[in-house]
From TrEMBL:
It comes from the Bacteria. It is an enzyme of class 2 (transferase). Its EC number is 2.4.2.21. InterPro entries: Nict_dMeBzImd_PRibTrfase (IPR003200), Nict_dMeBzImd_PRibTrfase_bact (IPR017846), Nict_dMeBzImd_PRibTrfase_N (IPR023195), Nict_dMeBzImd_PRibTrfase_sf (IPR036087). One of its GO terms (biological process) is cobalamin biosynthetic process. SUPFAM superfamilies: Nicotinate mononucleotide:5,6-dimethylbenzimidazole phosphoribosyltransferase (CobT). This is Nicotinate-nucleotide--dimethylbenzimidazole phosphoribosyltransferase. One of its GO terms (molecular function) is nicotinate-nucleotide-dimethylbenzimidazole phosphoribosyltransferase activity.
Length: 353
């Protein structure tokens, strides 16, 4: 796919008639009107994306894109890049946090090497490596436009493949030391704000480290001011292979009509990039939690999304999104095994709005 083709992509929105029918079905269930609140809306949206009032999300997976970031050499994270490979290998063995949670939620984990800076040992990781990590963006752009585009396409292809395999619901996840700096830089460039407004402590950063992180992000915003003229050039200058790939996953959700459950601040930056690249993509996103990183709340506001989990989580790997899988399963059990007003001989509530 060329840059021009990507920029010309268009998606039809979710099916509004199916969405209306699902809402009507919710109203016939013996409960207060809108009793399950946003969960009713999200289930309706999942059906509207798939184009069916019968909803089956038993087959679900979290796609975790793992990649390294050259900017780590500037001291913006507590650990070095070697940690990315160690955590990815643990994910491949089914042992990292998201694997434990996915097992509890009945979901699969698809761990992908899209740009780890070393060779990964062991099985369980899909190889889609584009390069051995990005470059230090204080010195030169993190990626070329071509690498960025390739990463976006990898994300889109992963969704296509999952759709073919029968997954009805997907979630985004990532792993990469330094990616709360890259995602904050992307977010700041997209929203036109300063690092202090959106960057946080990531995986655990000292006060000194946080000041350095602000300084690094603000310097990059200044350095690439005239170069960051569109979404792809922003991703290339200060983003990462994981963020570009996640952008492709969100776009893939719209193209292949698969609802995508969005995880934390890194996923949110990619969601914003995807919405800016292909307007309307946000309609295919199911928010999960609002990360402790300040960027997350700002992006939710911008996208008009309202995550139901506010647990001050900051783990990544797709953990918040996988938690959301279980909540959606629970809400769906009411819809799928419905007890109607007529079953309990009560008059259905009338909607006045
Ligand atoms: O999802 C989030 O909002 C989130 C917030 C803080 C940390 N993380 C995870 O921690 C790593 C990045 O932290 P850092 O401090 O190295 O930028 C990366 O692997 C992320 O998955 C993720
Ligand atoms: C151990 C560890 C696990 C992670 N998972 C996501 N980011 C992480 C960062 C660290 C340091």
């Amino acid at each position: 796919m060329t840059e021009k083709e990507l920029k010309c992509l268009k998606v039809d929105g979710p099916d509004v008639e199916i969405e209306r029918k699902i809402k009507e079905i919710w109203d016939g269930i013996a409960k207060p009107l809108d009793g399950l609140g946003q969960f009713e809306t999200m289930i309706a949206r999942i059906g509207a994306i798939a184009g069916d009032t019968r909803i089956d999300i038993s087959s679900k997976a979290v796609i975790v894109l793992c990649a390294d970031n050259g900017i780590v050499e500037e001291g913006i994270s507590q650990t070095g890049q070697e940690v990315t490979a160690r955590v990815a290998e643990s994910m491949g063995r089914g042992e990292s946090s998201v694997c434990r949670m996915a097992k509890a939620a009945g979901a699969d984990v698809i761990a992908v090497d899209i740009g780890i800076n070393s060779k990964i040992s062991g099985a369980g990781i899909v190889d889609r490596k584009i390069s051995c990590g990005t470059r230090n963006f204080l010195k030169e752009p993190a990626m070329t436009k071509e690498e960025t585009l390739r990463a976006v396409v990898v994300g889109m292809e992963l969704v296509k493949d999952c759709k073919r395999k029968g997954y009805a619901l997907l979630a985004t996840g990532e792993m990469g030391i330094g990616n709360t700096t890259t995602s904050a830089a992307v977010t700041a460039a997209l929203l036109g704000c300063r690092a202090e407004d959106i960057a946080g402590r990531g995986a655990g950063l000292s006060n000194e480290g946080l000041s350095r992180k602000y300084e690094v992000i603000n310097s990059a915003l200044e350095k690439y001011r005239f170069q960051m003229t569109d979404v792809l050039s922003i991703l290339a200058a200060v983003g990462g292979l994981d963020i570009a790939g996640l952008t492709g996953i969100f776009i893939g959700g719209g193209l292949y009509r698969v609802p995508i459950v969005m995880d934390g601040s890194i996923s949110a930056a990619a969601a914003l990039a995807a919405q800016r690249l292909v307007p309307g993509i946000k309609e295919f996103i199911i928010p999960s939690h609002v990360s402790r990183e300040p960027a997350a709340g700002r992006i939710m506001e911008e996208l008009g999304l309202h995550p139901v989990i506010d647990g001050k989580m900051a783990l990544g790997e797709g953990t918040g999104a996988v938690m959301m899988f279980s909540l959606l399963d629970i809400a769906l059990s009411v819809y799928a095994n419905r007890t109607g007003f007529q079953d309990i001989s009560v008059q259905q509530y009338v909607r006045f709005d």
